[in-house]
């Protein structure tokens, strides 16, 4: 088992790192439709919540969330989470997910996401953070045609 990444910092995603995000997409999602620099830029332009996992100044992961509506009917959608393969399994993905969930919980939003049905590692991580499978989207990922589970997590109120 890999040692945990203790020096990773989760910060607001810097526009200067969008090219790195697009490069990581090519590595992480080669059989599907990886996001481009323009797609990431558009997400930021729309005011979406995007964060990065940084080791020093180097971006090793990224994540994004959209929140729609207001409590008690607010909903959040995890748009993406990606971690450089050289740094997977060391806690960066969990740190990114937890930061997204804090944001959703602040807005008392139920959170949804899609995950490939064959991505057992991600499904386990999401389940460990309170998500449950609520649906199936056949051929969701293109062009591979891979299926996706839709997962949901109710907002957690601060105690």
Automatic annotation (TrEMBL):
Record-linked Pfam families: Acetyltransf_1
Entry EC number(s): 2.3.1.266
Alphabetical keyword list: Acyltransferase, Cytoplasm, Ribonucleoprotein, Ribosomal protein, Transferase
Domain N-acetyltransferase: from-to ranges: 8-156
InterPro entries: AcTrfase_RimI/Ard1 (IPR006464), Acyl_CoA_acyltransferase (IPR016181), GNAT_dom (IPR000182), YpeA/RimI_acetyltransf (IPR050680)
Gene Ontology molecular function: protein-N-terminal-alanine acetyltransferase activity
Class of enzymatic activity (EC top level): transferase
GO cellular component assignments: ribosome
Family that this chain belongs to: Belongs to the acetyltransferase family. RimI subfamily.
Protein name as annotated: Ribosomal protein S18-alanine N-acetyltransferase
Organism expressing this protein natively: Saccharopolyspora mangrovi
Organism classification: Bacteria, Bacillati, Actinomycetota, Actinomycetes, Pseudonocardiales
């Amino acid at each position: 088992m890999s040692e945990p990444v203790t020096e990773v910092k989760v910060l607001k995603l810097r526009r200067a790192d969008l090219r790195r995000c697009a490069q990581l997409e090519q590595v992480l999602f080669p059989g599907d439709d990886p996001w481009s620099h323009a797609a990431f830029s558009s997400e930021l332009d729309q005011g979406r919540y995007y964060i990065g996992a940084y080791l020093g100044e180097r971006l090793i992961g990224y994540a994004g969330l959209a929140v729609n509506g207001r409590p008690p009917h607010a909903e959040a959608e995890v748009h993406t989470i990606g971690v450089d393969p050289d740094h997977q399994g060391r806690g960066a993905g969990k740190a990114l997910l937890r930061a997204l969930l804090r944001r959703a919980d602040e807005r008392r939003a139920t959170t949804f996401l899609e995950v490939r049905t064959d991505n057992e590692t991600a499904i386990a991580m999401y389940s460990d953070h309170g998500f449950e499978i609520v649906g199936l989207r056949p051929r969701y990922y293109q062009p591979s045609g891979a299926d996706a589970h839709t997962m949901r997590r109710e907002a957690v109120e601060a105690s």
